[in-house]
Amino acid sequence: MPPTAPASVLAYCRPGFEGECAQELASHDVELGGAGHARAARGSGYVEFVSPAADALGSTWRGLVFARQLLRVLGSARALPPRDRLSVLLPMVEGDARRWCDAWVEAPDSDAARELAPLCRGLNSALVAALKKQHLIDRASPWRLHVCMTATDAAYVAAARVDATAPWPGGIPRLKFPRGAPSRSTLKLEEALLTLLDADERERCLKAGMRAVDLGAAPGGWTWQLVARSLHVTAVDNGPMDAGLLASGLVDHLRADGFRYQPPKPVDWLVCDMVEQPRKVSQRMAEWLAQAWCRHAVFNLKLPMKKRWDEVQACFALLREACGERVELRAKQLYHDREEITVYARLR
Ligand SMILES: C[S@@+](CC[C@H](N)C(=O)[O-])C[C@H]1O[C@@H](n2cnc3c(N)ncnc32)[C@H](O)[C@@H]1O
Q1: Element (H, E) at 8
Q2: Is 219 helix (H, G, I), strand (E, B) or coil?
Q3: Which of 57, 140, 142, 267 is the most exposed, fewest CB within 10 Å of its CB?
Q4: Ligand 1 contacts CB of residue 84 (under 6 A)
């Protein structure tokens, strides 16, 4: 019998952040008693984490900051025959008892792997056709099949539970820049709301007529997202706000220091995109939440060049210390984030 490969998960991340992604997976793995290890190459846009706890680890995508997607590896192959890659990949699934609601062939987000996009598209159609022929596609299945091409002749085959993983190929929501929005930064808040809240929470927690404060608002990309949902926004920034937003009648522009501003009465939402030391931002967010000046907060934490995972943990510890069990924290390094992460915090 061929030796069985050790159990592992595959995480996609922003290229250059493989180390942080591996550290984070390791810390979850320790909690699960896994004692595993990472296989990662800098700039590759993915991390394989080998662990006896891979099955449990594979369901933790929502709680991870640096993983855009998290898959349970079924097998991997190198030296795939260029004319018939499926002849090697398909047998890895044929022995599996599951059926699949869909199958995605994708590549990591690295410069090198991006060139694999045309190959992925072609292979995707062939894979789905082959699975259909073998009656392995069942739209009601809770499982999705992934093939991650890491080179023209190398791939992972992996499984994802639809309800516990990112619903976008590559873990990247492809958002269209909204017409009329004043800055590209608008996509960051849109992605944050899409990624860090579920559909039910978005409906319940973002209602027309609610009040929000936007610290560091100019020119208004984040404010634009809130106004598009008919929220009233106090936009705090010494810089100029977009004229169209001001004309909406839903925005009050305050030229003030975002680190000193206090709302005259509590608001529903606080959003903050001020570029500052992450601990200084966290400290201010902690004050807002601890004083219950807002119920929900979305903010960016710009990460330092080194020890970025340590910095994230220090900021979370600071927030938890100030707010205790009352605060729930979720965070991701979004596709539209560069050297930063986006945090959603809410009072329970
Ligand atoms: C990255 S930009 C914000 C972009 C904005 N979110 C958008 O979508 O258009 C950062 C903004 O923070 C503002 N800022 C920085 N420090 C500030 C402070 N202490 N108080 C208020 N605004 C501040 C800057 O003036 C700048 O407009």
Answers
A1: strand 8-12
A2: coil
A3: 140
A4: no
